[in-house]
Design a protein that fits this description.
heterodimer, A: about 290 residues, mainly alpha, B: about 325 residues, alpha+beta, five-stranded antiparallel β-sheet, 17 strands
């Protein structure tokens, strides 16, 4: 298993895809050997100097704590790390959509975490284990760190990260749902979390069946009308990002608080939860037997 | 054609952008003139003020097709929404429009878009929503083509936009370019927007590309640009097909960014005569299956040549060479 590179940068930066490519070697994907860090530092695009958000140390120490705390069950690290990464690295969506930032974190700052979290476990069949390259550099819902950040962004209910913990506690939920645009609608995301929390929908097959049904129904139904949301207001987010300059490290024990945005209207979550439950009960779920 | 299990309006909504104003960082408001949006291209360009804007207010007007207010219409509670979506930043905001006058088919309103919420392009569509057969929230008509709201560009163009960068491949701070020092240009499709790097080490290439001369030189320049464009279209098509997300059932999903735009534009030439969704399935099957990928290359190349308008560029270049030869023989 690899460790962190000899040279870990002090500041986050942007790492373009073509520049990152030579560092994603077969040895790295097999978690056998990592680059030294010095050459990589030469090909990054720097971020502004005067912004405390780009300090590497808070992120580095978070992932180290995660690796220690969840050494026996690494998949559980997602639910712990997602809200804390989100509250540590306070970004606008514009900044978070830049994949070069995530590539830099995965390759320059914490390749050891990527390997720890995503190297497939040894089995009799896979003699040559290999990390999927998309965990270092890839789509937002696959890349090791961006998937956690976006899960936290899309599943939080205003300042409350508790729904994020529920969502990330179910690998199938973030795996299947994050790639679909249905959770861009906040009430839909909260209704899905509620169904999982209540134990109405749990297995991967069920979640998949439900998200297919929601998308299909969404072709004819406009969820914004069924379940209206508050108008978007960026002021709380901007204040929260400004506070990052002086914010202490996030607590390892209690959930942090997100930007002080209005929560999703409860009536909208109620309405959608009922509607989805009805959809789910009538939707065919592949592979289930119908009891006679 | 889609089949709906309820009554709908037979024709699409016509959506127009009627005004655009920017809120700048210093708090002032700057109305943009009509060159910032194009009804023909269905595009809005918010980049005219550079990076200085914080938010934009876009005024829109939607005209419903006839029949929405018919006495015997099978729906009630009619509403019209403008919906802005951005697949890159997972933004979805909707704004209710209001009817201009009691018996009008025109609905208008304005929506606010924040620069911090977008990295590139967002789409803007309109929906007419009503209660049909007792089911609330049914969509009874939509726009058939979304508007593009580009938060970076200063020119309202809907199609794929390339970035062209000139750099010395041997001396660039982009160290990875050094490996390609002997190429006149290369295409990078892994960036957010497909980019052509032109190698300024090649004598005269930058001068030729930037030249505004007429005559043979301009025709040679157009031919060169068409050649680059063919390379770009071919590369972006392969890039987009290679990155496809696949649903659990094996159905490929259209990407939401420029890759989706590329596929929708090229697929009708790659697999003619079928819906783009079916064309995408066929191409994906051929790439991942045992057979048919090599055979498809000719069609991909053909689609790229058409996009790049290579035949036209070549035609003009040959004609101007012929003219030049004739004149030198005189």
């Amino acid at each position: 298993m690899i460790t962190q590179p000899d040279h870990v940068p002090e500041r986050l930066a942007l790492l373009p895809a073509s520049a990152a490519d030579p560092f994603i070697t077969e040895q790295l994907l097999k978690a056998e050997q990592v680059h030294g860090g010095v050459d990589l530092a030469k090909v990054v695009v720097p971020l502004p100097e005067d912004d405390a958000r780009w300090d590497v140390e808070p992120i580095r120490s978070l992932v180290e704590d995660a690796m220690f705390e969840f050494r026996d069950d690494r998949t559980r690290a997602d639910a712990w790390l997602a809200p804390r990464l989100h509250a540590t690295l306070r970004l606008t969506r514009r900044e978070a959509a830049d994949r070069r930032l995530w590539t830099h974190i995965a390759l320059a700052v914490a390749p050891d975490y990527v390997a720890w979290r995503h190297l497939p476990p040894p089995t009799a069949q896979n003699g040559a284990r290999r990390i999927a390259p998309e965990r270092f550099q890839g789509p937002a819902d696959r890349q090791c760190f961006s998937r956690l950040w976006w899960a936290a962004e899309l599943f939080r209910n205003g300042a409350d990260y508790e729904p994020v913990q529920v969502a990330c506690g179910n690998q199938d939920l973030i795996h299947t749902v994050l790639r679909r645009d249905l959770i861009d609608h906040r009430p839909t995301a909260q209704a899905l979390v509620r169904l999982v929390r209540n134990g109405k929908v749990t297995t991967g097959r069920e979640i998949n069946g439900l998200s297919v049904a929601i998308t299909a129904a969404g072709a004819t139904l406009v969820y914004d009308v069924l379940a209206p949301d508050e108008p978007r207001d960026l002021t709380p987010l901007r204040d929260w990002i400004a506070e990052a300059q002086t914010a202490p490290p996030v607590s390892r024990h209690v959930l942090p608080e997100g930007p002080d945005e209005d929560p999703v209207p409860e009536a909208s979550v109620d309405a959608l939860t009922d509607y989805f439950l009805e959809l789910f009960e009538t939707a065919p779920v592949r592979g289930t037997k119908i009891d006679s | 054609m889609k089949i709906y299990p309820y009554k709908r309006l037979g024709r699409p909504i016509a959506l127009r952008v009627t005004s655009v104003a920017l809120e700048l960082a210093d708090g002032t408001r700057e109305p943009l003139d009509t060159s910032a949006y194009s009804t023909q291209q269905q595009a809005v360009a918010l980049g005219v003020a550079g990076h200085d804007w914080v938010s934009a207010v876009i005024g829109v007007s939607a005209t419903l097709p006839p029949g929405a207010d018919a006495e015997d219409a099978p729906w009630s509670d009619l509403r019209v929404l403008a919906v802005l979506t951005d697949g890159e930043t997972n933004i979805r905001t909707s704004t209710a429009l209001t009817r201009d006058t009691d018996d009008s088919r025109d609905w208008s309103g304005s929506l606010e878009i924040y620069r911090d919420d977008h990295l590139g392009r967002a789409s803007l569509a309109a929906y007419a929503v009503a209660t049909v057969d007792g089911v609330a929230g049914r969509s009874i008509a939509e726009t058939d083509r979304s508007w593009t709201v580009d938060t970076v560009s200063d020119e309202p163009v809907a199609g794929l936009q390339l970035e062209v960068q000139k750099a010395s491949f041997t001396k660039s701070s982009r160290e990875w370019l050094r490996a390609y020092a002997d190429a006149p240009w290369i295409v990078d499709t892994s960036a957010r927007v497909p980019t052509v790097f032109v190698n300024s080490d090649v004598d005269g290439i930058v001068g030729l590309l930037d030249s505004s001369a007429s005559g043979v030189e301009s025709k040679v320049r157009d031919l060169l640009v068409a050649q680059m464009a063919t390379d770009v279209w071919t590369a972006v098509f392969h890039g987009a097909i290679g990155d496809l997300e696949v649903e659990p059932g094996g159905t490929p999903v259209f990407p939401t960014d420029w890759q989706g735009e590329v596929l929708r534009e090229m697929l009708p030439d790659v697999v003619p005569g079928v819906h783009v969704e079916e064309a995408l399935r066929q191409v994906h099957r051929r790439r991942t299956g045992d057979a048919g990928w090599a055979e498809l290359q000719t069609r991909i190349h053909y689609a790229a040549i058409r996009r790049a308008e290579a035949s036209k560029a070549l035609g003009y270049a040959i004609r101007s060479l012929e003219q030049a030869n004739r004149e030198s023989e005189k």
